[in-house]
Amino acid sequence: MPEPFKIKSVETMTLPNAEERKKAIEEAGFNTFLLKSNDCYVDLLTDSGTNAMSDKQWAGLMVGDEAYAGSKNFYHLQETVKEYFGFKHIIPTHQGRGAENILSSLTIKDGDWVPGNMYFTTTRFHQERNGANFRDVICDAAHDPSREDVLFKGNVDLKKFQDLIDEVGADKIPYICLAVTVNLAGGQPVSMQNIKEVSELAHKNGILVMYDATRCVENAYFIKDLEEGYADVSIKDIVHEMFSYGDGCTMSGKKDCITNIGGFLCVNDDDLYLRATAMVVQFEGMPSYGGLAGRDMEAMAIGIKEAMNYDYISHRVNQIRYLGEKLAAGGVPMVKPYGGHAIFLDAKQFLPHLDQEEFPAQALASAIYVESGVRTMERGIISAGRDAVTGENHKPKLETVRLTIPRRVYTYAHLDYVADTIIDLYEKRDTIKGLEWVYEPSCLRFFTGRFKQK
């Protein structure tokens, strides 16, 4: 189906020529994060804050109550989150990692363990910064990009979770971080059945269930589309049921709230809420704004409601499927099944002549830009970082390039261009060279690291 919206305002796009693109990537140290936005044609770096807001959201900006405390927009956001998510307390933050910081700081003790269905970069950073060890408890199929037969590759392997409990003791596990969907697995969903089973095992052992709710609407769509018994259930009701089995969540409003900035932390526990409000005052702002303007909270409240519309989320997921199917027709290797927010190219299969220590995903993302002006990002050994104890590179089984589709921004014609140029590049893939470090930051190195060709 075509886009379920009309275009009211446009932003002009310009494609730099080949020489300009080559110069730009060299000046950026072969790191697509360091490219200038004006040098990018179709920008698929991320779907975080790159959304197109609706007319209703823009209208909402005009009723922003910029009071320092007790803004009416906070109460609108609070009411909306309680209705759609069901959690008792909400604390706004400037974006999702602000919520991750608060949760990790308040719940983790040195030497604790935090299990999760695959790591996410900033989430694991905050957990480890506060003294925790991360343990991946996702199902094995999530690490195999070719496995198409597993529909819910984001599911937690309950045996892995139980083994960790037996190994370290439940008192050493403050919470399990349950991502819905799982970004680095390829945007893979978690089934409602698995959510229930994780909740039962965690709560039986006194362990909290804290969601990474960033793409919860996408997860709800997959449950409706794929899981028995949910075909006739609304997205809103599926989201509400998902969260009914947990104790809170971190949320980046820059994704499934369809805004350009913002996030929040939700909790049910009264004591944890009070401690969180004390911390948010130190690092974010008042508990009723958390580093956000009133107008941004209003846009987020409206965006939550719009995201639950089936036509909206169906179009979003089907844009990803469209791009995936077009690339697949050209023989391009990808993570399958296709996820909810991005296509993940399999860089190991795309560039089999490069060793993982030659950073194939980073090299491929750079080559895609030079070929087409399309900005993508690495999700592999660079994003995985180094072991905090040994200093050795983490070597994830998935070495991918993420083509992330912003919400309500690009048309199918843009996706045709992306697919056609990547297919062209795939046919001359042997020409792509590996990379080596020029500058490596001490943490979250994928954001600001710099490279050169070998």
Automatic annotation (TrEMBL):
Claim: Hydrolase is one of the keywords in the record: no
Residue list for modification N6-(pyridoxal phosphate)lysine: 255
Gene3D superfamilies the UniProt entry points to: Aspartate Aminotransferase, domain 1, Type I PLP-dependent aspartate aminotransferase-like (Major domain)
Keywords, in A-Z order: Lyase, Pyridoxal phosphate
Record domain Aromatic amino acid beta-eliminating lyase/threonine aldolase: where: 43-420
Obligatory cofactor(s): pyridoxal 5'-phosphate
One Pfam family it belongs to: Beta_elim_lyase
Family (UniProt): Belongs to the beta-eliminating lyase family.
Protein name: Tyrosine phenol-lyase
Organism from which the protein derives: Psychrilyobacter piezotolerans
